[in-house]
Specification:
single chain; alpha+beta; seven-stranded antiparallel β-sheet; four-stranded antiparallel β-sheet
Length: 264
């Protein structure tokens, strides 16, 4: 199964950061909310004006930030944060497409005319030291052992972690070498289970020939070495498209797909 990132019903939720005198009701009493406290989706929060709270889902390591004050259930805060991130993504995608359309109509291009302009899928690039043509390229990336070589020199799209000043959390940053914008999402390499989960609820659109930081999705740095695979396409894609690619079939949405692996 593949889903967009969201807290599981049995995920352990912890308070990552608190600003202001926020109180928590768990049961019949209200207490002052403390950092690192474990909380439940059904607990109630009371956030004063100017206050804020950040909640860590320890399964996905994603951090959800409150976007308003008042009294609310923990599950409602997380749901609102998810919807807010999705809304930001959609608006950012629209701005990018509108800007590119206006530049095209006026004959302007701030990205220039040099460089790569059209590519097929990365499935034939041979970025892996040993390429098994009988196995889908994305599946090989997912299962690539830690000691196996991977060279991203010729990858169309690159990924890195943009780490905050405290070196505790990060956002993903993606560099697109093409002259066209690409829709992207990120999955784990060597996941802990058979589930493959998108890191973003909506596919962000990354600018042509430049780096885009996905600033509205923030994660806690993992405690052990991690691997991430960025998936990119010139068209919107869904979990069903990725399932089809993993089976060695064509994605129902069509379009070209590009991949790159980051191991840290």
């Amino acid at each position: 199964m593949m889903t967009a990132t969201s807290p599981s019903l049995d995920a352990a939720l912890k308070v990552y950061r608190v600003k202001g005198d926020i109180t928590l009701r768990s049961g019949n009493s209200w207490t002052l909310l403390q950092r690192r406290a474990e909380i439940k989706p059904t607990d109630m929060l009371r956030i004063p004006a100017g206050g804020s709270v950040e909640i860590l889902d320890t399964d996905t390591r994603r951090i959800y930030s409150s976007v308003s004050s008042g009294e609310m259930q923990v599950s409602s805060l997380i749901s609102t944060a998810i919807n807010d991130a999705s809304d930001i993504t959609r608006k950012a995608n629209t701005r990018i497409l509108t800007s590119l359309s206006e530049n095209k109509a006026s004959g302007k291009s701030r990205f220039g005319n040099t460089g790569l302009s059209m590519h097929d899928t990365d499935s034939e690039t041979g970025a892996l030291a040993t390429l098994d043509l009988a196995t889908p390229y994305l599946q090989q990336l997912i299962n690539l052992p830690a000691d196996a070589a991977y060279d991203d020199y010729s990858d169309i799209i690159l990924i890195r972690r943009d780490i905050d000043g405290e070196r505790e959390t990060f956002n993903f940053a993606v560099f697109n070498t093409l002259d066209i914008p690409l829709f992207i999402n990120v999955i784990d390499q060597n996941p802990d289970s058979d589930d493959i989960t998108f890191y973003f609820n909506e596919n962000p659109l990354v600018n042509p020939r430049g780096e885009t930081v996905i600033g509205h999705y923030r994660y806690l740095l993992p405690e052990r070495p991690a691997g991430y695979i960025v998936i990119a396409s010139d068209r919107q894609f869904t979990p069903d498209d990725i399932r089809s690619l993993l089976r060695g079939n064509t994605a129902p949405s069509g379009g070209d797909f590009f991949y790159s692996l980051l191991r840290i």
